[in-house]
Every structure is written in C-alpha cells, then in structure tokens.
Design goal:
Strand order of the largest sheet of chain A: 1-2
CATH class of the largest domain in chain B: Alpha Beta
Mean pLDDT of chain B: 88
Radius of gyration of chain A: 19 Å
CATH topology of the largest domain in chain B: Rossmann fold
Strand order of the largest sheet of chain B: 5-6-7-3-8-9
Low-confidence stretches of chain A: none
CATH architecture of the largest domain in chain B: 3-Layer(aba) Sandwich
Low-confidence stretches of chain B: none
Number of domains of chain B: 2
Order of helices and strands of chain A: HHEEHHHHHHHHH
Distance between the termini of chain B: 37 Å
Order of helices and strands of chain B: EHEEHEHEHHHEHEHEEHEEEHEH
Oligomer: heterodimer
Shape of chain B: globular
Number of strands of chain A: 2
Mean pLDDT of chain A: 90
Number of helices of chain B: 11
Radius of gyration of chain B: 24 Å
Number of helices of chain A: 11
Distance between the termini of chain A: 31 Å
Largest sheet of chain A: 2 strands, antiparallel
Helix content of chain A: over 70%
Strand content of chain B: 25-35%
C-alpha cells in the first residue's frame, strides 16, 4: 500500500512538472474547451428568458451556475482516452509500461490526477470571468461542497474505467475509432453534458439511471448547484462507488483476457 | 548451477490476415478473410547460466525480439516452457518484473519534457527502491556514463546518444538480475556505442547480471559476448562460443599483403577483396592458407603480410546464406 502511495505521489509530481512546462498551451486548451459550454449556456439562457425567465425548472442564473461548474467537471473528466490506448499499443509504448511492476492503469490514473491540480489552478480565473459575464445563481451548502469534492474524483475514476475498457478493445483490433465515436455520442446525451438531465425526455432520464454516464457529469454538477438533500447527495456518492467497484471488477476480468491477446505489434 | 534463463521447445505463432492487392480482393476479404500462420519462433531451446552475457543474433524477422518479449513476459508463447530466475514470465508477477529489465534501443520511458533526474525519481517509486540505495545506484551510473552535466537538462534537449544513456540508467536503477537488451546501440555513433558496451560489461561484472543481447552491430557482440545463439526463421542455427562459430562457419581466411609493386596481379593466390594502394586483401580457403602464404613469400617481394579470420559480420552472413541454401 505504501509503495502505491509513493508511486501515486511521484507520478502526480511528474504530471504537475510536465504540465507546468506547457502552462500556456494548457491555458489555450482550456479556453478552447470553454467554447462548448458557452454555446450551451447562451442557447439555454436565451430560451429561459424567452419562456418568461425559466425553462425545465432552470432560470438563466441556474443555467449559468450549471455550465460554469460544467467546465470544471469536464476538465476533471479528462482521462487517458481510447485514442491514447490505440497510440500506445501501435507505438509500442505499452510494452515499456507492462515491464513495470505496477498496472499501467495506475499510471494513467496517477498521471491525470496530477494534471488536475494544474487544471484547477488554471480554471479559477476562467470561472471568475464566466461568473462576471453570466451572473450565475449559486446557493451552496457546506455538505454540497464536500460531496462535490468527492463526486468529481468519483466521476474521474468512473470515466477512467469506462474509457480504459473502451481503449482495451485495441488489444484485439487497432482501428476502433468508430466505436469510440458511438460511445462519445451516447455519453453526450446520457450524461448531462449536453443539457441537464432533468430537461431531457422522461425515457432518456429513466435510461440514464441504469447507465454510468450521468454519474460522471450530471451528478457532480448537481451536487454543487442543484437542490438535492443530504440523503440524495450521499446516495449519489454511493452509486458512484458502486460503479467504480463494478468497473474495477470488469476491468480486471477483461484485462486478464486482453493481456494474453497482446501481440506487442508496435515494439 | 540452476540456469538463469531456461527455454524449452519455445514456439510463438501468429495468425496474420492476408489478401491480394486491389479493390476486389479488399471487398472479398470482408466476407472471406484468409489467415496465414507465421512461425515467429519455432521450437527453440537454450539455457543461460547466471552472470553470462549471450549474444542473440539473426537477421530482421528471425524471431529475436519475439523471444525477448516472451522471456520478459510481454507475449504468451504458443507452446513450450520458459523459466527466468525461477519465474514463469507470462504470469507477470511483480516480484519477477522487479528483477528484470527490457531495454529496447528505439523505445523511451523517460518523460520527454522533464530532466531525467525527475524521471529517475519516478522509477524509484515504481520499483519501490529504498532511497539510500536508489541515490547510490543513480550516482554510480551517472558517473560511469559521464552524465553529471546532463541529468538536469530536459530529455527532449539531449542528443540521441545522451538520451539512450539516460534510458539505460533509468531502466537499470532497480539493479535487475536479468537484462534483455534489444539493439541498445542502434543509431549511435561509434564512441557512444563503445561507452554503452563498457557500461553493460561493468554492470554485468559488478552485479553478476545475466544479459541476453540482440544487436546488428558485431562490434557489440565481439566486445561483450563469449557465447552466441544464432536464429533464423524462428529456429536455432547455432548455439556456442563465438570463436567456435567462426571456426565452424568460416572456410576462409583473409590475407593482407603490402607489396612494393602496387600493380602486381595477385588473383592467382586467392580472391582479391580490396586493393588500397600497395595494400591488397585476399580471401583464401582456410585449408590453403599456409600454402598460399608460403607461395606469396617465395614468389614476391612482400613488405608486410597478415593472416586474419574472416570478420564476424561475414561469418554471420554466411551462416544465414547457408541456411537459406539448405531450404
């Protein structure tokens, strides 16, 4: 256990040092990423204003709060992608990682977790500017802050597991971009990334209850800016833990098959 | 003594999809895909004693890297048994991975953007190396490879040779008992190759490490390996001392003759390989070497004469050629 803590701390340090080297590039990357929520925000606040100040239970200020927190959650949700898996198998990088006495996914989790600290630091001024422009309605309790803090890391782990599972398809075939695109389409609709889930049709909301996507976007955002009571907040964290636990079991199971399949094509 | 590496009847076969060129064949392959079995490694056996440095030779596609990957636990064999320092590599136990290293000349594991010293720290954490032991090993290696002025520079700013030296330090910080070196000097200049060879030799000597080395540079093999295993088309062609390989497969010797008359015709004595001013090199059948030498000395005025074994490169080449002819 101590070795893992040591490894995580060392990996996170390397990630932070690497990202600081590229802080300007990172900033432009984040600014680029903000385009997506700003478009959603402008569209939905306009609709809310046209419908007398509220649509789907959200006021313009509530939308602003939702999408400003969205930007942080989206950055927390950046993980090693299936395209990255494709690259590291094709380029032989995975072979070097497999020679280490630690699972490559620990390396991914640790590296991107370190990156988050730089991201959060860079996000703060952007969030301040967005708040100044869009005037969000924030009414936040301490319990919501605590649950939000746990939920963004829960979301990070769930998304890491999901995208790792997807990425591991490349053990069998190295060109699977079409499958990845299908996944990202489903995620967009069923996670709360496009719009808050409560605005979606009832059948979509029901479907999303049985899938992991909403625990990676909608739940963390709603935990901070929504109206959930304490029991609902902790139940949400529980659901995230359940998805993480089942994801780890499935990941281990598939990894066992995948590693036997590995042909080290790239070196 | 128990072998450090023991390989028995190892095979690794792949099913590779194949089709004719052209659109029609591409469409047909969608519905009726054909596969061809490729025997990357086919029934090879060998064992290596602890502390030995063995050269693993063969042309491209011979099965060298595949064998190294099986030994290091990256690939599952199709058949056969492999044991390395008491472990079955395919189980990939962490204890096993902590005691071996695979260094590939064209692969990087150090962070591109950071000074190598930061990446070494990550290696320490990965392998759980005690801090004092880590610092001592790191500093020793830095001294041996003369890297003191470079460890604080971002890896991306280092030359290929400097980077390779850093990669080797990073890969060996945990002091592995077994090294699998796949073309560790590829693309490096002669000085850098020499330095890396010297380092490998010193590492082997200091830690009694077992080394299995592939290289297309015969200078690496000659400098480091007393014993070589030659494979071709996945099968072993030779396993023994390098000197025995030369004796067994070289039926020629090379004579170097320096004459006062550079125009003299020496073709009657043997095959003229090169002519550089007054210096001529001849290839002569091993059995006729003494006779030809005597004839040269009695027939001509000779300023200098040397008799050498065929260069190892040429011997290896003749091994592969003879195996092709036997097919």
């Amino acid at each position: 256990m101590r070795r893992y803590v040591d490894f995580y701390l060392a990996s996170m340090k390397v990630a932070i040092l690497s990202q600081i080297q590229y802080s300007v590039a990172n900033y432009f990357y984040m600014i680029g990423m903000i385009t997506e929520p700003v478009i959603y925000l402008v569209v939905w606040t306009t609709i809310a204003k046209q419908e007398g100040g509220m649509t789907g239970g959200y006021t313009a200020g509530a939308f602003a709060a939702y999408y400003i927190i969205w930007t942080l959650v989206r950055n927390m949700n950046i993980v090693f992608t299936p395209y990255g898996w494709e690259w590291r198998i094709r380029e032989g990088q995975l072979s070097m990682e497999l020679m280490r006495p630690i699972h490559p996914i620990h390396g991914d989790v640790a590296f991107f977790a370190g990156w988050k600290f730089v991201v959060i630091l860079l996000w703060l001024p952007l969030a301040a500017i967005l708040s100044w422009i869009f005037k969000p309605d924030f009414d936040i309790r301490w319990m919501e802050v605590i649950v939000f803090f746990l939920a963004i890391w829960g979301a990070y782990l769930i998304r890491t597991i999901l995208l790792s599972l997807l990425g591991m398809i490349t053990f069998w075939t190295t060109r699977v971009s079409a499958i990845f695109e299908l996944y990202f389409g489903l995620e967009l609709i069923l996670s709360g990334r496009l719009v808050p889930m409560t605005i979606m049709p009832v059948w979509v909301q029901s479907l999303s209850n049985y899938l992991p996507f909403k625990w990676t976007f909608f739940f963390p955002i709603e935990a901070l800016v929504g109206t959930m009571n304490d029991a609902q907040l902790w139940a949400g964290v529980g659901m995230q833990a359940l998805w993480v636990a089942s994801g780890v079991i499935i990941l281990n199971l598939i990894w066992g098959f995948a590693i036997k399949q590995y042909s080290a094509v790239g070196g | 003594m128990t072998a450090a590496i023991s390989v028995s009847k190892l095979s690794k076969h792949y099913n590779v999809p194949e089709r004719e060129g052209g659109l029609k064949a591409a469409v047909v392959s969608l519905f009726n895909r054909k596969y061809r079995a490729v025997k990357a490694v086919d029934d090879i056996s060998f064992s290596i004693e602890p502390g030995e440095i063995v050269g693993f030779l063969g042309p491209n596609g011979a099965g060298k890297t595949t064998t190294l990957k099986v030994l290091s636990g990256l690939l599952h064999p199709t058949a056969g048994e492999v044991n390395v320092i008491g472990y079955e590599p395919t189980k990939r136990s962490h204890d096993y991975l902590r005691q071996v290293a695979l260094v590939m000349g064209n692969r990087n594991q150090l962070s591109w953007d950071l000074p190598a010293i930061d990446s070494f720290e990550l290696q320490r954490a990965i392998y759980g190396i005690p801090v004092t032991e880590f610092m001592k090993t790191r500093d020793d290696f830095i001294d041996l490879l003369e890297l003191k002025d470079l460890v604080n520079k971002p890896v991306r700013n280092l030359s290929l040779g400097e980077r390779m030296k850093m990669e080797i330090v990073g890969a060996l910080l945990h002091r592995p008992k077994v090294l699998f070196l796949d073309e560790p000097t590829i693309g490096l200049d002669v000085t850098m190759q020499r330095r890396i060879r010297a380092f490998i030799k010193e590492y082997n000597h200091r830690w009694s490490a077992t080394v299995l080395l592939t290289s297309h540079y015969m200078a690496d093999v000659e400098a480091l390996c007393k014993r070589v295993i030659v494979i071709h088309h996945g099968q072993t062609l030779f396993d023994g001392e390098l000197s025995a390989l030369v004796t067994q497969f070289s039926s020629f010797k090379t004579l170097g003759v320096t004459l006062p008359n550079p125009e003299a015709d020496l073709s009657q004595y043997g095959e003229v390989l090169t002519r550089d001013g007054a210096r001529v090199t001849l290839r002569v059948a091993k059995s006729k070497t003494s006779q030809v030498t005597a004839n040269l000395l009695s027939d001509l005025q000779v300023d200098d004469l040397t008799v050498e074994d065929t260069p190892v490169d040429d011997v290896i080449d003749s091994v592969f050629t003879s195996s092709e002819e036997l097919k």
